[in-house]
Every structure is written in C-alpha cells, then in structure tokens.
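hey so i finaly got around to running the thing on HVO_0649 family zinc finger protein from Halorubrum miltondacostae. pasting the sequence first so u can double check i didnt mess up the copy paste, my clipboard has been acting weird all day
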Amino acid sequence: MSDRSRSPFERLREYYEHEERVCPECGFEDEEGAWEAEADGADVVYTHTCSECGAERRHSLELPDRETALEHVERRQ
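ok and heres what it spat out for the 3d tokens, dont ask me to read them lol
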C-alpha cells in the first residue's frame, strides 16, 4: 500500500508506532504495542498504554476552527 492510499492520520499513527516504541516512564520497548486513534470530527487523539508499566501517552490534534468542524459533523449525522 502506498503512502498516497492512506490518510495523513493513518500515516501519523504509523509514525508513532514506529518512532515512539520506548516508554518514557519505564524504558520498556513495546515492539507490538499499537497506538489507538479516536476522532470526533474536530479533534484526533492518539493514545498508547505501556504493556509493562501501564503509563499512558497521548498526542492530540485539534482543528483550528473546532466549532465549524463540529457543526459540519453534526449536520452529516
């Protein structure tokens, strides 16, 4: 699958999975741990829980015009 067939959000999740494997809390390298992504139409939140110590990491992306994005999502539902 080429980079063009995946969304920028999928590519960012894959980046986290590849580049952020080592837990900053305990130093465990989680080679199989996946980052989860959740979106509400205005924000995208990526999270990962260390399988060794349970520490959670989080990256959030917010669209600049959150209110307009949420209104658009609500109209489409």
